[in-house]
Amino acid sequence: MKKYLAAVAILSIALSASGQAFSQPESGAEDLSKPAGVEPPMLGIHWARGFEPNFLAKHAQKGPAGVHGRKTSVNMLWHNGEILTTAVIESIFWGTSWGTYSGDKISGLDLWYDGFGGSNYAKTSDEYTGTNGQVGAGTTHLGHVIDASGASGGTFTGPILAEVCKMITSPDPNGYYPVYTDLPRGNAGYCAWHSYGTCNGTPVQFAFFWKLDGDPGCDPKSTVSGESQGLAALANVSGHELSEARTDPTSDGWYDSAGQENGDKCAWTFNIPSVTFSNGSQWKIQGEWSNAAYTAGTGYSNSAGQKGCLDGH
Question: Does some domain include residue 201?
Answer without folding.
Answer: yes
